[in-house]
Design a protein that fits this description.
The longest helix is centred in the first third of the chain and has 35 residues, at about 5-40. The radius of gyration is 21 Å and the shape is extended. It has five helices and no strands. About 0% of the residues are buried. It starts with a helix and ends with a helix. It is mainly alpha-helical.
């Protein structure tokens, strides 16, 4: 294919840049927390957080069984549990009218009431079912 090599280079460079930008984005919150809690510079906080994550990640990289256990724990238990906590608080802990108002703010078509209903009666119970089935079956994927 004419130009295939060039397209391949562009594609894989794009993947590399996407990975780097995602890593930077995911480190932003712990770096900011370290800066605020310990009153240190961004560079120092970045080095500390990056170093800690490197040390935690090294055993996961060297032992695929450990990595598999870690990945299963995250995807089967912790991510759905986090979704239940956040969405439960959002859809059941905050007044529905406030949520609808914020969603509809500046919107041409008001959809806030539909989103609240879908969240309360479909999304939250659906994630709860996913969590329960994941616990019972050791994953549902």
């Amino acid at each position: 294919m004419a130009g295939g090599r060039i397209l391949g280079i562009i594609f894989f460079l794009s993947v590399i840049f996407a990975a780097i930008s995602s890593a930077i984005n995911q480190l932003e919150v712990p770096v900011e927390a370290a800066m605020e809690k310990f009153n240190i510079s961004r560079v120092k906080a970045s080095v500390i957080v990056g170093g800690i994550l490197f040390l935690v990640g090294l055993p996961l990289d060297l032992d695929m069984n450990l990595f598999g256990t870690f990945a299963d724990t995250m995807t089967i238990y912790l991510i759905p549990l986090g979704a239940i906590i956040i969405l439960g608080f959002y859809f059941y802990g905050i007044d529905s009218k406030s949520i609808e108002y914020e969603i509809d703010l500046g919107a041409k078509h008001k959809v806030g009431k539909y989103i609240v209903k879908i969240g309360k009666y479909i999304f939250v119970p659906g994630v709860l079912i996913i969590l329960i089935l994941g616990v019972l079956y050791g994953g549902i994927g």
